[in-house]
Design a protein that fits this description.
2 copies of one chain form a homodimer. With 305 residues, chain A is α/β, with parallel strands linked by helices. In chain A, 56% of the residues lie in helices and 13% in strands. Chain A has 13 helices and 8 strands. In chain A, strands 3-2-1-4-5-6-7-8 form an 8-stranded mixed β-sheet, sandwiched between helices. The longest helix of chain A is centred in the C-terminal third of the chain and has 27 residues. The termini of chain A are far apart.
Chain lengths: 305, 305
């Protein structure tokens, strides 16, 4: 009987351990906007945490967060927010991560895991992991044109890709824990280095953004008249990304300048090839230019289905 | 009484003349796809012509056109199509206009006015007006992602901008007649030279198209892996224009190469400024870059409301 009991006790401990791998007694969201709020909703819906706390910067946000039902409590006090939290998710803008990490560091519980949702990684990871040993960078590729906690959706991360960017210094258990966390929210995870991440998103996200802005400035910013009247729905759609908040994009650009310049170099090759084909009026090269673009894009769209 | 009759007869002639300014006994659409079909529907709906004929290239198109109700009759025979037509609208691709004009020339009625809907003008106008004295170039900025006569809509041209591009050689009465025709369909007209038109659309339409294609090729065409997985909705929307038919865009590029190169030069200035700001990590310049782009675009959107 004694041996049976100890056997049971062992299993119970194992069970508790397993539960704790995917479930956190307390999760803290630092910054509760569209993404933070959506994570909170999904965590609560899926029962992944005993308690969800939110750290906000404005008094009014406390009521907004609780009204939206995305956190159990929200506070302006960093110490209170992260007290006893097993997982802290930094959901603020890229430019604020370093300062935040410094502010939170003295209040973190032993063994607390910290991750973030920033869209640039090398810069953020280097800064934050030097302060917080159990920090693992993340970047869930989920968003919406609508912003703010009022637009939070429990399914925002479902089927989304989430990059997880460990370094040689990363705590292996923390990396796995963070990956499992995102997977528990329905996201697919991709593990890659912060530098590889930044090179990829410089092309897939930052380049389309800066190009949309450059296009708007080129077409609408000149002294010429009449252009505005000739811009139609094609122009509207292809420049939608230029509508992003300038301070946010300034921070992203400042956090990833080299990779964006490298992406601009790649684009330059395409533009130079196009220019030559136009200058020598090479019909075949021009058709190939358009045809390959169309094929690449439709192949990509098919792959997403 | 005799004097009364002659007075009435004069007024009747005047009336007939006025009617003939906006109404055409017979209008011929050369090429009956989305745009040609939509013009046909609108003309019939608004009673602007006694008769609408369509010239098509494929036997099956005859049934499609009449089934869609966009023409009264459709034919494969150019002579039959334009016989007695007071207005002929070329609704085919830019690359085919010259050949078409040559083919139709011997069959045109005396005084027949010819216009087109091509998205490039200098090249087309120079070629066609040397053959057809009463030709006036037009470019209605109306379209849809859906193509083909089955998607024709009577309201496609309502509130659309339609460029009309006369030259020094143009017949003044024909120019006014063409402008009134587009206005009768609910479009706004803008009169400008073919060259000025091509410079404007090179920036507002052709540049966004070639950029979307260049972006797709740059991001998805490399040997690197992983990019496709990281492309999200922002990339999808900003590259939608790359989905255009390659032979059509080859013809547009071949018809307007110098203006597109000039537009690429303007864009290059923006990209060079951005590159410098990234290289020296100038936060203020970067914020200004994004901020001005956003303001220009939202000002443009407001102007469209």
């Amino acid at each position: 009987l004694a041996s049976d009991r100890s056997h049971w006790a062992l299993n119970y401990t194992t069970l508790l351990f397993i539960i704790r791998v995917v479930e956190f007694p307390k999760i803290t969201l630092v910054g509760v906007g569209l993404l933070g709020g959506s994570i909170g909703l999904a965590v609560k819906r899926r029962g992944l945490a005993g308690y969800v706390a939110g750290l906000v910067r404005r008094e009014e946000s406390i009521a907004e967060c609780t009204k939206a039902g995305v956190v159990d409590t929200a506070t302006l006090d960093p110490a209170e927010a992260v007290d006893d939290a097993a997982l802290i998710i930094l959901c603020t803008q890229v430019g604020q991560m370093g300062e935040l990490a410094e502010q939170l560091k003295p209040h973190l519980a032993d063994g607390a895991i910290v991750t973030d949702v920033g869209s640039v990684k090398a810069n953020v990871v280097a800064m934050v992991e030097s302060m917080l040993p159990r920090f693992v960078g993340s970047h869930p590729l989920a968003g919406s044109e609508k912003t703010g906690v009022a637009n939070a959706r429990a399914d925002l991360l479902e089927d989304a890709l989430c990059a997880v960017t460990p370094t040689e210094r990363s705590d292996r258990a923390a990396v796995e824990s963070v990956e499992k966390f995102w997977q528990s929210l329905g996201a697919r995870t991709a593990r890659l280095s912060p530098e590889a991440h930044d090179l990829v998103v410089a092309r897939t996200s930052h380049l389309p953004h800066v190009l949309a802005t450059a296009l708007v400035r080129c077409v609408l910013g000149g002294a010429e008249n009449g252009e505005a009247d000739f811009c139609a729905t094609g122009f509207r759609d292809s420049t939608r990304l230029a509508d992003g908040a300038a301070p946010m994009w300034r921070d992203i650009a400042m956090a990833n300048p080299k990779a964006i310049v490298a992406a601009l170099d790649d684009l330059q090759e395409e533009l130079d090839g196009l220019r030559t084909a136009l200058e020598v009026e090479d019909a075949e090269a021009l058709e190939q230019f358009f045809d390959e673009g169309r094929r690449l894009r439709s192949g990509w769209l098919k792959g997403r289905e």
